[in-house]
Design goal:
Helix content: under 10%
Strand content: 25-35%
Radius of gyration: 24 Å
Largest sheet: 4 strands, antiparallel
Number of helices: 0
Shape: globular
Amino acid sequence: MRYSLTLTDPDNTADYDRDDPTPVTITWVHPTDPSKNYTVDVALGSGYVLWPGAAVEPAEGYTEDQIDPTNPDTFVPTDWPGWGVDENGDWFEYDDPEVDYGWTRDGVEVTAEINPTFSVSLTYPPPTATCTAEPPTTTTVVLDAPPPTAARVEDITYTG
């Protein structure tokens, strides 16, 4: 999730720790149980945080510090909210939205708190050409075709 947070405080009266490098708390608010809220502390300004339940690792040739959330060539998604992997390595969507933050996918209130609190409702982003919203699927096609046979060319003529 991309964020841009600015605190307008011309009289320098906002009540927060100015020495704290991450004074803003972003919270995905669980619809019925506050103990299941997901929070992350961030700095003022602009940045990115992973959606709860999502995970990435560096793409080949990159390190963790080189992951650029605006450049999908730098990372590989490894988890999606509400999804799991079975013992065969196949992805499945959990039936229970409480598992792996599945409850955040279909509309969730997100707050940013420093002083005062700001709240918005967000929906997990839909897939795009460069970003999938769920694990990849693998399709295996087996064709019942005879093995290839060699072709013999008797003559080639070029007229140009």
